[in-house]
Specification:
By secondary structure, this protein is an alpha/beta fold. It is built from 21 helices and 18 strands. It folds into two domains: about 210 residues, YjeF N-terminal domain (Rossmann fold); about 260 residues, Ribokinase (UDP-N-acetylmuramoyl-L-alanine:D-glutamate ligase), CATH 3.40.1190.20. Helices cover about 45% and strands about 15% of the residues. Strand 16 and strand 17 form a beta hairpin. The longest helix is centred in the N-terminal third of the chain and has 19 residues.
Amino acid sequence: MELLTTAEMAEADRLTIAGGTPGFALMQNAGRAVAEAAAGLAEEGAVLVVAGRGNNGGDGFVAAGELAAMGREVRVALVGEVADLKGDAARAAQAWRGEVLPGDAATVARVAADAALVIDALFGAGLDRDITGEARAVIEAINVSRKPVLAVDLPSGVNGTTGAVMGVAVQAAETVTFFRRKPGHWLLPGRFHCGRVRLAQIGIGGGVLAAIRPATFENDPDLWEGAFPVPQAGGHKYGRGHAVVVSGGLAATGAARLAARGALRGGAGLATVASPPDALAVNAAALTAVMVREVASPVAFAALLADPRFNACVVGPGAGVGARTRDFVLTALSGRRGVVLDADALTSFADDPAALFAAVAAHQGGTVLTPHEGEFSRLFKYVSDKDQLHSKLEKARAAARASGAVVLLKGPDTVVAAPDGRAAIAANAPPWLSTAGSGDVLAGMVAAMLAQGMPAFEAASAAVWMHGEAGHEAGPGLIAEDLPEVLPAVFRRLYDRFGIDY
């Protein structure tokens, strides 16, 4: 599903209102959705609504009225003055029949102490400055109360577009958002503040998306189902592609083997490790279904790749940093095959990224770069993370534009970005994926998707999602070797979801 930035959501509201739906009707629908969620989150007890001066506060006033109509005890604390409210928010406040308490930290702390639930309707998704003064103190009082919090649209203090915490942010148990989720619901650290995210439809029609043309998506099978490869009964192994992974030297062979196993389990018909002579015996002894070929130099690698059946390639895991790896990368990029560049392949170009980007521009196949944050910062030095609003999403997009490749920026909120501006954010990675070799398996899985004909953006997105699901399937205590072995279970769940017989 699409994710809408703050500006895109404002445009969705504007187009809906211009089409004849009153803004106050949208606010009423939003408030009702909040009240319904609140009633489910706290079935009994008093509710405190902490409202701000904008439309988010207006949603809170509507929710307060709906909850009062259900017979609930509701208190409303307004950070600001009723006289300062404007438009639909003022109308919602006028419709509230109860008392409006001053929204200072002391009052919020006192009333929250006797409440079963706090509704955070202070700031919406459009917050773009650090929270200071009384508003900051109020948020701190909400958090200190340790009462369950239901956030309206986004926890106050989280930027809806970037996921940044603007100085301080509410820690919510649940968040109700409207029409479409926002990037800030998935990006860190904002995601850690949202709790469960509930999506409510409030009268904005999906037709507005054609005018908005959002380019950010949840990384979910719906995004890439149409491109996902499914083996056919009449097919053969070469029809599913042949992935080749470049191995490092004798003391650094494991990463390449993990990537090759990831490629084979990820659906490639064949996988081969291109091994230097000194590591040939080690690689051959450790591999069975994955084949091994001796490749002593970039020239020998070029000779291997002259066979067009090698249609996907991984360079980087355990390859070593330096001129030799750079030459292997440039060789891989010289043909029409899909290429995945990870780890040492990226760091080897840290001093001359333009050389890599020029080779990617000339490459006639799909290219995917798979850095973690450290590798990213070395290769894309110009992308600064000093600005609080310079999000992971923006960094990945900038890197994809600069490099001409699909960039898979790894982490708990992995972002896949394409040069054309499309981006997908993953939210299904369990914490136990943070283990040595996990990224090597992922690189191989991306290569598997490329080998089977998926376009680069869809291939990277599918591999990231399946990698996260494999982490859940393996469970706590997993090591990287476990991930390829649980992929059959992930495939079965995907096929069931897609309605594919197997």
